[in-house]
Amino acid sequence: MSASATQTAYEQLRASLLAGLYQPEEKLKISELGASFSVSPGAIREALARLTAEGLVIAMPQRGFRVAPVSVADLRDLTDMRIEIETKCLRRAIANGDLAWETAVVAAHHRLAATPIATADGRFSPAWMLAHGDFHTALAQACGSAWMMRVRDLLFVHNERYLELARKADRGNRDAAREHRELMEAALARDTERAVTIMTVHLGNTRDTIEAALLATTAMSAAR
Amino acid sequence: MSASATQTAYEQLRASLLAGLYQPEEKLKISELGASFSVSPGAIREALARLTAEGLVIAMPQRGFRVAPVSVADLRDLTDMRIEIETKCLRRAIANGDLAWETAVVAAHHRLAATPIATADGRFSPAWMLAHGDFHTALAQACGSAWMMRVRDLLFVHNERYLELARKADRGNRDAAREHRELMEAALARDTERAVTIMTVHLGNTRDTIEAALLATTAMSAAR
DNA sequence: TTTCCTGGAAAAATCTATTTTCTGTTCTGA
DNA sequence: TCAGAACAGAAAATAGATTTTTCCAGGAAA
After folding, report:
1. How many beta-carbon pairs below 8 A join chains A and B?
2. Chain B residues with CB-CB distance to A88 below 8 A
3. Same fold for the domain at A5-67 and the one at A72-223?
4. Maximum CA pair distance of chain B?
5. Mean pLDDT, to the nearest integer, of A21-39?
6. Which of A45, A150, A155 lies nearest to residue B46, judging by beta carbons?
7. Residue B118: beta bridge partners?
8. What Å value separates CA A77 and C1' C11?
9. How confident is the model at residue A1 (pLDDT cuts 50, 70, 90)?
């Protein structure tokens, strides 16, 4: 009996959303969710309220909750913002980072590199998603600003949702592993400009991959 | 019968927090709040959960909710981040802004300038707080990025809380009205660098005023 | 014949009252 | 003085009651 029911429901629901188990704009019925997690509607409501404030879910008063929508325009906007924030974090982390930061980055990269990116069924493996998130967090951590990290986390989470939605198109057709390695090397070498350039390219590539997958999915559903 | 009970409770509680009716780190007892708003504990819990995700309230599992703490370090960090975001919005708004933007800025400034800053009892007047928020929002609006506006809003709200906490020290000892006028003039003249400079100074002045008031308050409570 | 409006039933969201569980404190006995 | 147990207060969860919305059928008008 670790956490409270609400906490558990929140975490499971959040994980499900990030894993793309629900379609964007899909209605989230409170009673169904309550049944599947075997908790009361009240607990579900509280979890949904928190997710609403995070932006993963949108609330429609008296009409329940829906999964937040996605769009190419939103993805581009999100990525622009991520490039701004991530590069700013990176600059400050490279300037401020101490040995503990270097150690954490090396450790996180080692784990990321050693974790298989996909499971047998073609999805991103949860372990890789976790290691990937931790790697980028470790890089940014030394920026020394709690607010910057908070905004960064917010944006990163939303990107993860897009990543999962577009996972089918991202199997092996780009060398993310190389980009991560180069990112680490530039950061440890304190080569700020190079690290920023790689980060910018990395985020741009991610956007392009997701965008292609999104358009393909949209075209498919339109043709159906 | 306008909105739902939860919505009403959320809005009232949020307004109370921003108005500084509760002290930082003060415990928010669910039953008390429920009694004062005459709604059930469940509705209060949901409102508090949303405020938690916004960062105005912190949750302590099984031990209820507290008002988020404040500190000089947090204020400095917050202001650094605000300067980054607000200037970025401003640059883009000046580059993109059309006639509708100019019109909205002029209108918002006129209202701000014509609204008394304080009420008789020395607090900021709610009307001024509203007009002030709307003015800064109008300036940033034309940046053309929903995510940027969202992050900006988040930071602005937290700053408003600090502003209210420090309101006693801000009576007449700086010329915020002049700063706002100059900001508008530079933006309308499309003088990007001047506008950015004024904005940076404006936010820095705000921080310094709040910081002085915070330290005075802390010293007072320590001496008591 | 098609489209639009109206009435009612069913489903879903929301709220309240109650029960259960947990935490922090105080009291008792060694 | 300290350890342990009982107690009080508060938070969290649940279940049921209430209100609101949505869906569908039937009928009237174009």
Report:
1. 72
2. 84
3. no
4. 55
5. 87
6. A45
7. B124
8. 38
9. very low
pLDDT value of residue B182 = 97
Residue A63 CB in 7 A reach of strand D: yes
Domains of chain A by residue range: 5-67, 72-223
Predicted local confidence at residue B24, as pLDDT: 92
- C-alpha distance from A195 to closest chain B C-alpha (Å): 20
Nucleotide nearest to B63 (CA to C1'): D11
Per-residue pLDDT at B140: 97
Query: Do B49 and A49 lie within an 8 Å CB cutoff?
Result: yes
| Model confidence pLDDT, tens digit, residues B159-197 | 999 998 877 665 555 788 999 999 999 999 999 999 999
CATH no. for B5-67: 1.10.10.10
Contact B78 A147 (CB under 8 A): yes
Query: Any CB–CB contact under 8 A between A84 and chain B?
Result: yes
CATH class of B72-223: mainly alpha
Interface subset of A 151-190, CB within 8 angstroms of B:
151, 154-155
Mean pLDDT value of segment A73-96: 97
Residues of chain B whose pLDDT is less than 50?
1-2, 224
The whole-angstrom distance between B155's CA and the closest CA on chain A is 9
- The yes-or-no verdict on residue A62 having pLDDT over 90 is no
